[in-house]
């Protein structure tokens, strides 16, 4: 739920800053890339560790990334890069 909220909010922010509906929709679509890449590349790694430890680590990374996204005046390319890191 929190990641979806961040994805929608970031799309709205990109639209507000750029005025481009295309860039805003691409930002929303880019929000699904971590799920696609993470499931493909990291699922085998995650299976090697206890579930609780993996969940806590992922939520910790997500918290830090969303906190960095909340910095006022951050450039749009930096926000998009942070969106890709969001787990």
Written description of the protein model:
With 87 residues, the protein is mainly α. 79% of the residues lie in helices and 0% in strands. The chain is elongated. The model has no long low-confidence stretch (mean pLDDT 85).
Quick tags:
87 residues; mainly alpha
Give a concise summary.
By secondary structure, this protein is mainly α.
Instruction: Please write the string of helix (H) and strand (E) elements.
Output: HHHHHH
User: Beta-strand percentage?
Assistant: under 5%
Largest sheet: none
Structural class, from helix and strand content? mainly alpha
Helix content: over 70%
Topology:
Layout: H1 2-18, H2 21-30, H3 33-41, H4 43-46, H5 51-69, H6 76-85
Helix pairs in contact: 1-2, 5-6
């Amino acid at each position: 739920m929190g990641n979806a909220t961040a994805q929608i909010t970031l799309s709205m922010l990109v639209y507000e800053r750029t005025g481009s509906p295309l860039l805003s929709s691409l930002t929303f679509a880019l929000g699904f890339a971590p799920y696609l890449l993470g499931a493909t590349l990291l699922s085998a790694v995650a299976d090697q560790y206890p579930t609780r430890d993996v969940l806590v680590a992922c939520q910790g990374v997500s918290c830090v990334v969303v906190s960095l996204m909340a910095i006022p005046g951050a450039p749009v390319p930096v926000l998009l890069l942070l969106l890709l890191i969001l787990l």
